[in-house]
Amino acid sequence: MSTTKTPITVAYGDGIGPEIMDATLRILDAAGAQIEPEVIEIGEKVYKSGTKTGIQPSDWESLRRTQVFLKAPITTPQGGGFKSLNVTARTSLGLFANVRPCQAYYPYVDTKHPALDLVIIRENEEDLYTGIEHRQTDQVFQCLKLISRPGCEKIIRYAFEYARAYNRKKVTCFTKDNIMKMTDGLFRKVFDEIAKEYSDIQSEHWIIDIGSALLADEPERFGVIVTLNLYGDIISDIAAQIAGSVGMGGSANVGDQCAMFEAIHGSAPDIAGRGIANPSGLINGAIMMLVHIGQGEVAAKVHNAWLRTIEEGIHTGDIYQEGVSKQRVGTKEFADAVIERLGQQPQHFKAVSYASAPRPIHITPGIPPAQKKELVGVDVFLDWKKGTANELGDALSSLSDSPLRLKMITNRGVKVYPEGMPETFCTDHWRCRFVSDNSGEVSKEATLKLLSLLHEQGFDFIKTENLYTFDGQPGYSLGQGE
Ligand code: NAD
User: Does the reported pTM lie above 0.70?
Assistant: First the structure.
């Protein structure tokens, strides 16, 4: 092992953050980790000093230089327009993969699923979490779900590479592609394409709803799960909870250049400063960090000593069970117990080795060939409160001099004109689909002329979406009932 120390950026965070970071760094030091921490201040104090992102602009320098961030949890003040530091760090540093191993430590930590041992790999940069939201009418708010092919490719390839590197036999994909055929459909399509390149690893897909139900009921059937940002966020907490150990899980946020490691839990202000917090989540995050920086031997030493401590029943209050636990300890005593066991192997749990663990997995997404893109129409969204769907449809159909023909109107996705159903509830938000008379190509000028005409006639257009075909295939969904 190299004796050159790897610089890492460390943040002690808020609440129980300083206590668990102190415990973790003491263990790493005692284990011989060759690291050189650079401490930065993040979180509540920084937010309250007026920095909306929770991190001083100058501290990005440290992160860019070290490219490794060991972060304790922080408290995000409620209201006041403060931005989540986690989301900012993930997106600004390109940390596209959130990796959350989740394991049962039965019988030492109580769970209904003793064989649970899985890893959730969640896409971290896209989906509904891009935060592009708009209020468009009195009644309707919108959040944009963005999914890109390179984004899908990076995370899915990462999941297969991870499975291969860590000897996992199966990768499962969760999407809702039966409903979101274009966005989730793309994720599924890329998954099916990439799965074919990894014939040594089983692959399967579940719709997220039944997939989550199976995860909650029979988690032992899963190895690696790869999914989109929102679903991944939700199922990661379900998996941690049913493992019986939200306080024990660590997580890695990995990008091409930088990576951030943390505990999955928050800053636990209710127990802060009492010296009773369980540092295991951050210890597990730090173990992932050591593997990432090529110090797998130290990672294994810490991991095995930690497993030994857990199985000897030395437990913090959050996992203490009468009759199972042997000693109730505080944060500091727990860290001391791990340090005493450095060099020992667990007796009940399987000892861990990171000898063949990979250095950072690098993924370069391919750029698909450009396809022939043709404009074939436009969806114009109107804020309109003056009457029924038929009245709006008739008014738009009879616009004189319109360069485009009204094809249909939907309200919240359901076709309401022509031949809508009288039972359909309508809001003040209407999508009006215009196409050319011969259903062929449409010019940008025609769409501009249409908007100008609508404006002159007093229609309040709130947004437009161009309708394109790509190599003749529609790049837009049909209205329900279209
Ligand atoms: P939390 O995870 O902080 O606490 C939930 C419960 O679990 C509390 O009862 C707490 O005492 C307990 N708990 C959590 N970690 C523990 C540990 N290591 N040992 C023992 N008990 C532990 O969740 P919350 O209360 O919803 O959030 C508190 C704050 O943390 C909020 O400001 C939230 O925004 C923030 N938060 C930060 C992060 C992060 O920085 N990564 C993640 C989640 C929440």
Answer: yes
Strand partners, 468: 375
Q: Domain of 45?
A: 1-95+251-354
CA 408 / ligand 1 centre spacing (Å): 49
Express each pLDDT in 47-86 by its tens digit.
Answer: 988 888 889 888 999 999 999 999 999 998 887 778 788 8
Average pLDDT, the chain: 93
- In whole angstroms, what is the distance from residue 275 CA to residue 482 CA? 62
Atom of ligand 1 at shortest distance to CA of 77? 32
**Do 259 and 348 belong to one domain?**
yes
Shared domain check, 233 and 272: no
Whether 151 is in the pocket of ligand 1, judged by its Cβ within 6 Å, is no
From atom 11 of ligand 1, which residue's Cα is the shortest distance away?
Answer: 268
The whole-number pLDDT of residue 88 equals: 84
CA of 348 to the centre of ligand 1 (A): 29
DSSP annotation string for 265-290: S---GGGTTTT----HHHHHHHHHHH
Nearest to 237 by CA among 75, 100, 83: 100
At residue 242, does pLDDT exceed 80?
yes
Centroid of ligand 1 to alpha carbon of 453 (angstroms) = 55
User: What is the pLDDT confidence band of residue 89, given thresholds at 50, 70 and 90?
Assistant: confident
| Residues 122 and 235 placed together within one structural domain of the fold | yes
Nearest CA owner, ligand 1 atom 36 = 266
For ligand 1, whether the C-beta of 266 sits within 6 Å is yes
Amino acid at 443: S
Does residue 23 have its Cβ closer than 6 Å to ligand 1?
no
> Angle 183-195/149-165 helices, nearest 10 degrees?
40
pLDDT band at 2 (very low <50, low <70, confident <90, very high): low
Dist. CA 73 → ligand 1 center (Å):
8
pLDDT band at 438 (very low <50, low <70, confident <90, very high): confident
CA atoms within 13 A on the CB side of 346: 23
What is the number of the ligand 1 atom nearest to the C-alpha of 277? 19
Q: Is the CB of 24 under 6 A from ligand 1?
A: no
Is residue 280 in contact with ligand 1, taking CB distance under 6 Å?
no
CA atoms within 13 A on the CB side of 442: 26
The ligand 1 atom at the shortest distance from the C-alpha of residue 43 is: 40
Same domain, 18 and 141: no
Residue 440, φ and ψ in degrees, nearest 5? -100, -155
* Same-domain status, 313 and 399: no
